Structure formats: C-alpha cells, structure tokens
Amino acid sequence: MKLMVVSPPHGYTTRDVWKRVLSGLAANGVEVLPYDLLPRWRMWDELLALGEKKGMNIPSGIGANVLAYEPIVGAAIKHDADAVLLVCPQYFPGPIAHVLRKAGKKTIGYWTEAPYEDTTQAPLQSSDFDFAFVNDRYSVDLFRAFNPATFYLPHSFDPAIHYAPEEEARDDKVVFIGTGYSGRWDFFNRVDWSGIDFELRGIWRRRPGRQRLNKYIQAGVMENDETATMYRQNAVGLSLHRTQRYSMAEFEIDEGDAYSVGPRTYELAACGCFQISDYRRELIDIFGDTVPVYETPEELGAIVRQAISDPVWRQEKAAQQRLAVQGRDCATTMRYMLEQVA
Asked: Would you state the CATH architecture of domain 174-324?
C-alpha cells in the first residue's frame, strides 16, 4: 500500500504525532509518502499577510490553508498514492477531499485534538472523508453520527525515541513538558514546590508579580527526542491533561467529556520515567493503580515528595508503568488503522 501522510500545520505536539504515524506505518511495510504542510502553510501565511499590508486584492476564500493543501491532489496522483491520510485536519478544506475521492484516492482523517474540538466543525468535517479516526473514546459516537466509518485510535509511543536507559541513572528533578494553558498555570501555581527541583518546559509565559511558578519556567519548544531525553534523565514526570477547548480559559470541556489519555502519558511510561497524573478513565484501563492520581495541588505535592524520598517505591512503580504500555507502540496502533481501511 502506498499512503501519502499529510502533516498538521503546527510545529508542536501534533507534529510529533504525525512523525509517529509515519514511523508506525513504515514499520508495517507501508510505502509512506510524507507531505510536510508546515513550510507551505508558513510561507502562504506570511505572503498573504504581506499582500494585505500592501493593499492587494486577495480573492475571498483564499487562505493559507487552501493554498497549502491544494497541491495534495496533484502530488497524490503523481506518486500513485492509494490513499491520503491527514493528521489533525482541522483546517483542511472539504472540497479537496471530494476531489481526491473523484481521483480514486481514499481519504482518511485522524483527529488528534478530541475532545477539545468536538464543538467545532470537526465532527461535521469528518463526513468529507472515507474514514475517520479520533483519539478519544468519548468522541467516537459523535463523529460516527457524521461518518459511520469512525474508529478510536489512541496515542502511542515510538520505540526508536521512547525507551528506558539500560542503567537507572536519574537525577531528582520533577518535570512537566507541555503548553502552559491558563488552567495548568493556575493549578501548578498553587502547588508548594519548596525544596523540589521542578522545571516547566514548553510554551509557558511568566506572569507579572510575585507568582511562585515563574522561577520554575524554562520556556521553549522542545523537539520530541529532546523531551524523551529529559524523561530518561529525570526522576518524575507529571501529566496534567488539558481542559481548555481553545487557548482561552472560558472555553473548557465539561466534566466527563474526556476519556482518553494524551501522548505524553505513553512517552513517560516508555522512557521509564515515574509518572504522576490527574484523572482520566483510560489511565486506569492502561495502568491500573500503578500511576498515582491527584486531584488537588496539595495531593500532587505530597505524591511528588513521596516519590523523591522513596526511590525504591518510585522505581518499582516506574517499571510497572513501563510494562503496562508494551504493545501500545506506534507500529501496533497503525496496524489497527490499516486493518480498518483495507
């Protein structure tokens, strides 16, 4: 099978997911044709902004998304792709999907931002595709109302990047890597981090005033191999799932809207980094009681201190967590996708 796999227009976590899809498909013997949308998107976005600044008459309906995605049709035909898979297709123009189908190309969408985009056009958008995959179990029925060929496809890890060190040589650092949404910022700011070597990585902004969290922020986007290196070096990794639908705090998912865990959950476990997490039902499905779960800042602080003071307990739990994700790698996950679209 020859499959063109189109990246998201983002340079962050969703891009890591795209790379994992590429690796998983290749491991299953698929001839993979990567289509990197990001440089095209950035180019057109800058050119259109420049055109508007200069007063150019830009036709309505012409945006960076249309111009970046349009060449997919020609590329799929030129390279004789059997199907086109779009990872995180939230900005993908529906008419292009119809053109691909008329050209005899199967269209597959993998919505990686469920349930945060379930109230946007994403479920309706899935009706343009032959197959739809979503990363949260709770979103399947919603998407299936628009596309009967909808399936749950969980996140995964790539063994080539996410693996544990041969020898247990870790520092006592506690790390969280992710985007600093306001809900996360407020929660971590209420934790007593005194005496703990804590570090926040990713897209974080310091807030004005004497905020206790500011001194722990080491802002900057990290490549996934850098993230994995930190997970192999550090003693404790934190998961705090996103609750916000968008970047603004007032748009939040309702309690009980989310079931599944995010990609960092798998990465931490595969790298052998002891993980502490907030609650998601799927966390229990995968790990049982091996991942300590917190609800309040006080509970998180107490578990972190226990993990630092009791390395034997921490290492035993980390080993159990790592064992729990075996068989949940990207090759296995992509094999399931291929079985559904065959």
From this structure: 3-Layer(aba) Sandwich (3.40)
